[in-house]
Specification:
The complex is a heterodimer of chains A (176) and B (358). Chain A is of the alpha/beta class. Chain A has helices at residues 15-28, 75-81, 114-122, 128-140, 147-155, 164-170, and strands at 2-10, 32-37, 47-55, 67-72, 85-94, 108-112. A 6-stranded mixed beta sheet of chain A has the order 2-3-1-4-5-6, sandwiched between helices. In chain A, helix 2 (75-81) links the parallel strand 4 and strand 5. Chain B contains 14 helices and 14 strands.
Chain lengths: 176, 358
């Protein structure tokens, strides 16, 4: 198994964090993993993206020009990156704010209204990125959902520990 | 085995240095290595170390000179143009045989250049931008784990050879996160033991021994020649003992890639792509840039028709490869420059074209 995942959106949407959470989960499942952010003169509200490679064998290049899973957290990201996705790949669209339609007809499109779900089901719009993460994990099986407990435990420590229940709940907010 | 942690390259580099006993860090901010000084400013004071944000790279390298001369274990880091500014210091370290470890998280150049990953500092780090007869020892890791392991080794080598050692990382290694096992911490040498362990260090003689002095001024040239001849054998020893590389699938290879750092991972993927198309491809990955692992090229067999250098420069490494091959095989360059990255599919395609026209 080898998956290349590309996540893109505005700075501040938790784009890099979604990728890091996937990377932690993969590591705790003893898989090979790399996480590579875009870096540059970035700012809140500017563009942000990251690449996560998860594999059973050592990862050669941590950079990708095509991906198996694409997450578009905003409209410009969908327009800019939809052609990176391989035919038959999984395309996750943040339908809460993405107005643009995708031009791809050869991929599996998943519309995730993650902001509404975070507000209505979790009562915290800041968990929208975790709603999206839950959708990715449950739809693609790229990592196991139950590993996320360990990921939250290891990464949300001290004062952040109180945020674990809401984040865990957010993972199941989308779909049935 | 210690637990794996998911760490950003720059933070892993800093952690590895502290665990190797480093207690002095001097630096000036520059992308893409800023997480190193950020981490050091927070963590070094906690373990009794000293962090100073200098007013410039030139100040930082000379602070390192002072701390290392008095027996401190020192790390300095910067990125390409910052390392250029430090070159005077490297020459002085070499002249006075002062051990310092430096990390170059390199980016596109020349000049201020771009802030994206580059490998156009090959000549800067291997040839030395400083003046005089000296070498810097240069390690080239290809993963965060290898960087961490090499940093521990770099401190040992710097001390054994009493010479500056550079870890040649790049923007990808600095910015990416990978699982990593950090080596256990080595306690730093207690101050009272310094004169015994580093007898050359300027620790204060208290009128009980001959004074130590570190001096790079030799106005009597015959004495300077004697001095250079006295330390030069360590470079011969380094060439014999430190040159390091990793070979992959050289047996039966039609084409052999040569690469280092994160670009070696791109080359490995390009080799896999070629293999799927029936072209046997191998890889020589340089783990040291100086000493250059010349011996690696003796492993290339009769099946090999072409050597392709994949690097993020206009062929700086290729010159050393050509020198090592001594005209025995044609050598070509597959590169990107200025902060642009090599794509494995593109590298494979360009390699196929090279093989067709040979």
């Amino acid at each position: 198994m080898s998956k290349k995942i590309f996540i893109a959106g505005f700075g501040g949407q938790g784009v890099l964090l979604i990728g890091q959470m996937l990377a932690y989960a993969a590591m705790y499942q003893d898989k090979e993993v790399s996480w590579m952010p875009s870096y540059g003169p970035e700012m809140r509200g500017g563009t942000a993206n990251c690449t996560v490679c998860i594999s059973d064998t050592p990862i050669a290049s941590p950079l990708v020009t095509s991906c198996d899973v694409l997450i578009a957290m905003n409209g410009p990201s969908l327009v800019k990156y939809e052609n990176m996705l391989v035919p038959g790949g999984d395309l996750f669209i943040n339908s809460s704010i993405v107005q643009e339609p995708t031009t791809r007809t050869d991929v599996n499109v998943h519309y995730v209204d993650c902001i509404e779900l975070a507000e209505q089901k979790i009562g915290n719009a800041k968990t929208a990125n975790m709603v999206m993460l839950g959708a990715i994990i449950r739809q693609t099986g790229v990592v196991e959902l139950n590993v996320m407990d360990k990921v939250f435990e290891k990464t949300m420590t001290g004062g952040k520990a109180k945020l674990i229940p809401a984040n865990r709940e957010a993972l199941s907010a989308w779909g049935k | 085995m210690a637990e794996k942690k998911l760490m950003k390259g720059n933070e892993a580099f800093a952690t590895a240095a502290i665990n190797a006993g480093c207690r002095f860090y001097f630096g000036y901010p520059i992308t893409p290595q800023n997480e190193v000084p950020e981490f050091m400013s927070r963590e070094l004071p906690k373990c009794g170390g000293a962090f100073i944000q200098a007013e410039s790279e030139l100040a930082a390298v000379n602070m390192a000179y002072g701390a290392a001369s008095s027996g401190g274990k020192v790390l300095i880091t910067s990125s390409s143009p910052g390392i250029a500014l430090m070159q005077e210091g490297f020459s002085f370290f070499a002249s006075t045989q002062t051990p310092v470890v430096a990390i170059n998280v390199s980016r596109g150049g020349p000049g201020v250049g771009s802030i994206q990953p580059g490998q156009a500092d090959y000549e800067q780090v291997t040839r030395g931008g400083g003046n005089g007869d000296y070498h810097t020892i240069v390690f080239a890791p290809a993963s965060v784990q290898e960087a961490v392991d090499m940093i521990g080794k770099a401190f040992e080598v710097a001390e054994e050879y009493r010479n500056p050692v550079i870890i040649c990382a790049d923007g990808i290694l600095g910015q990416m996160m990978e699982p990593v096992v950090i080596p256990p911490a080595i306690p730093p040498v207690p101050e009272e033991d310094l004169p015994k362990i580093r007898p050359w260090a300027i620790t204060g003689h208290k009128n009980k021994r001959e004074k130590n002095s570190h001096n790079s001024v030799w106005l009597q040239q015959e004495k300077l020649e004697d001095y250079i001849n006295s330390y030069w054998p360590k470079y011969d020893k380094a060439e014999r003992e430190l040159a390091d590389w990793e070979s992959t699938d050289l047996d039966g290879a039609e084409v052999v890639f040569v690469a280092y750092g994160s670009t070696a991972r791109v080359a490995l993927e390009a080799a896999e792509i070629l293999k799927k198309e029936g072209i046997k491809a191998g890889l020589i990955r340089l783990k040291t840039l100086w000493p250059f692992p010349k011996e690696a090229f003796k492993e290339i067999g009769p099946s090999t028709k072409h050597v392709v250098c994949t690097e993020l420069s206009m062929g700086q490494m290729m010159k050393d490869v050509e020198c090592a091959l001594q005209g025995k095989l044609p050598v070509s360059l597959v590169n990107r420059v200025g902060g642009m990255l090599l794509d494995p599919i593109d590298a494979a395609e360009r390699t196929k074209k090279i093989l067709e026209v040979k």
